[in-house]
Specification:
Blueprint (H helix, E strand, L loop, with lengths): L1 H24 L10 H17 L5 H9 L1 H28 L3 E2 L8 H12 L8 E2 L2 H46 L5 H10 L5 H22 L15 H18 L4 H22 L14 H13 L7 H12 L3 H11 L29
Antiparallel strand pairs: 1-2
Amino acid sequence: MHAFTLAAAIFLAISVLWEVFETIVLPRKIERRLRFTRLFYLTCWRVFCYLSDGIKGARKRSSFLAIFGPLSLIALFAVWGATLVFAFALINWSTRLPFRLPAGEMPSFFADLYVSGTTLTTLGLGDVTPRSHLARLSMVSEAAIGLGLFGLVVSYLPTLYQAFSRREVEIALLDARAGSPASAGELLYRVTRAGRAEKLEALMERWEHWFAEIMESQTSYPVLCYFRSQHTNQSWIAATTTVLDTCAFSMACLRDRRVSQAHLTFAMGRHAIVDIAQVFYRKPASTSPERLSKDTFVAICEGLREHGLELRDEGEAWTRLSELRLLYEPYVYSLSRLLRMELAPWKSSPGSKDNWEVTKWHSETRPH
């Protein structure tokens, strides 16, 4: 019985340490589906989503869901530490390692649990001391693991928040360029209305790099996908959708050289969103709400023609755009349902203000 307990305790400790290595140290997507960390996030996220359903108001609900990313990290670290404490306590108990206890106390599993807890956290209280070489080796090994785990956590958090900050900078910059919430139609309008149609190519090139960066960071550290933007009407899902919409429209409708960069950005964006969906084992949605009607498409085309853009025939462009949308919309819609983040519209609502124009003391609609 003790041999079985010892084997189970060693297996539990090694499993936790391997989870720590895969989650923090290994900078790549993990193909293995059955993982403690994955099950932890799936379970906790479902609980959070269930609780959020009882919150009235989109802003309050979004604020509540925004807690999940940082809080889940703290909870995950705590679960790892508690599991290691329990595993080493089982090792000490199953091997009957001798410890000098305070006067009047008898050896028990709870005493071993206390020894393990004070050792992993390196408290060094001195009220319990090892009485054999094997007990000393066990305590030194656990203390070393505790210090290593603390060091990894300290280095892991800045890495995460730096990646989050870089992601959010481009999303914030999109506010003045594409509206709030961002939309492909508004982005194209503003670029062409300002007489800077050539800037669209440079913008797409910058977002090509942004897609490459989020693919690298969010497949290696999926918890970043749960981190939400500062404003309720902004998210990395909405920004991704806006830029992919813009690229798809450019490829289907524009006639000039900007199409070549749109193709590169579209390819990188589609690659990123598919890889991130695979991390969560999310299949593309078989059905999704219609985001772009034919009338809205025609209105966008007419508005762009008024600003001097040369567009292809509407019938041909609509068919091509519909084909391109099928390459990414099922994936972004599937992720948006999982993460409770809204997709970007194709066209901004009339009279809506950008986030930079709105404060607590001002209306969120433009005066007529």
